[in-house]
Design a protein that fits this description.
There is one protein chain. Among the domains are: about 70-210 and about 230-235, 3-Layer(aba) Sandwich (Beta-lactamase); about 285-380. The protein is of the alpha+beta class. It has 16 helices and 11 strands. Strands 3-2-1-11-10-9-8 form a 7-stranded antiparallel beta sheet, with helices on both faces. The protein has helices at about 10-25, 70-80, 110-115, 145-150, 170-180, 185-195, 235-240, 245-255, 265-270, 285-305, 310-315, 320-335, 340-355, 360-380, 385-390, 445-460, and strands spanning about 30-35, 40-50, 55, 60-65, 220, 225, 240-245, 400-405, 405-415, 420-425, 430-435. A hairpin with a 2-residue loop joins strand 9 (about 405-415) and strand 10 (about 420-425). Helix 2 packs across helix 6.
């Protein structure tokens, strides 16, 4: 039964998110938070859309939503499937004909599903993008011709479907292919098939559509402005959407209650789990671990031959104990989570070693070098446990997580001067969106709100 002594839930939610928004503005120039709770909208608006003119954030303030764009792209994919323009597991190559040749693993082709759920084996970014980019606006120059040239030069990729690897490259390609299937480009296709049906009139993918005074100024950090990012047709599907809290409430509502949306079938398709079987050419588990372990053993034997058995039994920076302390955790972090985790682990164990043994560069140098080589060699060796857990159920664009024993579907985004978060718990009819015009993650704010809403739901049904 409901406890009548419990404060009004709507007032509690409003107070809670307003407090988080206020705290967030210590490091964010402006922030907009929206909550859907049992169909009711609750919002918190703090800070400045433009700090110089003191223009406040409102519900109609337009933010760059970054990688939340991938949700719009997957909804466009679901629309193409519903229109029978393609199938989820059909080769994307069919959309391009002879214009470009997509890479293959020799046994399977890149499919629409594999692009949407990050299992295409395409890298995070095209190989030629950063080398030619202005890092103040890194996607503005990347043309369709450059995309095709890059794809034509990729003769072989890792086993398609073998694991999840986040890819802006892949989603950009997906959006471009969907535009071609629609007989137009991505901008027009997503506007006609996603934005207009959902009534999102204040949302666009065109950077030349400046929204007049509604567009929030972008900030690299608190009150330090920077350029907005521009996206070409080749990459816009991965991060080019701009929207307001007013419109994102419509997007949230459609995903929490698809039956009331004109895109009901498409939204339900996005939320349906799927799985791509690993290629038969993937490393078997024993081989996947045998080679990294062999790398460590060969190095240990090599040092033993140079230093003698004293090295094995010694204590200090030049010992088997310190060798193991540095290389083994670094290797485990690299294989199971990724390059960044491996580097952070190496930094942590190096500091620990220096604290225990003292700084001895001559003794530590080879160990650090071998650890860096291990990070380089084995970053992509095994499926990363974190990304597999988040994306292992294979939904289109959505990442998934268990929070308080409930399924949370979520995504986040960040570009040079903004950050965003969107999460839904369909079972409990909970939705949260957070947008800020500063390049600082708002994931923590979003997760805190979702956790609080789930707690309130659990209290409500007791």
């Amino acid at each position: 039964m409901h406890d009548n002594s419990q404060p009004n839930i709507g007032e509690h939610i409003a107070s809670y998110i307003d407090r988080l928004a206020s705290d967030g503005c210590r490091k964010l120039t402006g922030i907009a938070i929206g909550v859907l709770w049992d169909g009711h909208e609750v919002s918190a608006l703090r800070g400045w859309a433009d700090s110089e003119s003191r223009r406040p954030v409102t519900k109609s303030t337009v933010f760059e939503v970054g990688s939340l764009s991938k949700l719009f792209t997957s909804l466009l994919l679901a629309s193409a499937v519903q229109r029978q323009e393609c199938e989820l597991d059909a080769p994307v190559q069919d959309a391009f004909g002879d214009e470009v040749t997509l890479p293959s693993d020799g046994a399977a082709s890149i499919t629409y599903r594999s692009l949407a759920n990050h299992r295409s084996s395409l890298p995070r970014l095209p190989g030629d993008l950063l080398a030619t980019a202005d890092m103040e606006n890194p996607y503005a120059h990347y043309t369709r011709e450059m995309l095709y040239e890059c794809l034509n030069g990729m003769t072989h990729i890792r086993s398609i479907g073998s694991r999840a690897e986040y890819s802006n490259f892949g989603v950009g390609l997906l959006g471009h292919a969907l535009g071609k299937l629609a007989g137009t480009d991505y901008h027009q296709a997503v506007r006609q098939r996603v934005l207009e049906p959902l009534g999102m009139s204040n949302t666009t993918t065109r950077s030349d559509h400046q929204h007049g005074p509604e567009l929030a100024t972008a900030y690299r950090s608190l009150n330090k402005p920077c350029p907005h990012w521009d996206f070409t047709e080749a990459v816009v599907a991965a991060g080019g959407v701009r929207s307001s809290l007013e419109d994102m409430f419509k997007f949230l509502r459609a995903h929490l209650d698809p039956t009331t949306s004109p895109l009901a079938a498409e939204i339900l398709m996005m939320q349906e789990p799927s799985d791509l079987p690993a290629s038969k050419r993937s490393h078997s588990r024993w081989l996947g671990w045998a080679l990294p372990i062999g790398y460590i053993l060969i190095l240990a034997v090599f040092v033993t031959c140079l230093s003698g058995w004293e090295w094995v039994t010694a204590f200090g920076s030049n010992s088997l104990l310190n060798f193991t302390l540095i290389l083994v955790p670094t290797l485990l972090g690299t294989i199971w989570i990724g390059r960044v985790a491996g580097g952070m682990t190496l930094a942590a164990v190096t500091l620990l070693s220096w604290w225990v043994w003292g700084i001895e560069p001559m003794a530590m140098g080879p160990y650090l070098l071998w650890a860096v080589i291990a990070i380089s060699l084995f970053t992509h060796w095994q499926p990363h446990i974190l990304t597999d857990y988040q994306r292992g159920q294979g939904r289109l664009a959505w990442q998934n997580w268990s929070m308080r024993n409930h399924l949370l579907l979520w995504h986040n985004g960040m570009v040079g001067g903004s950050a965003s978060y969107l999460g839904i718990v369909p079972e409990l009819q909970i939705g949260v969106v957070v947008m800020a015009n500063t390049a600082r993650s708002v994931d923590g704010i979003g997760d805190k709100i979702v956790a609080e809403l789930i707690k309130l739901k659990n209290q409500k049904v007791k």
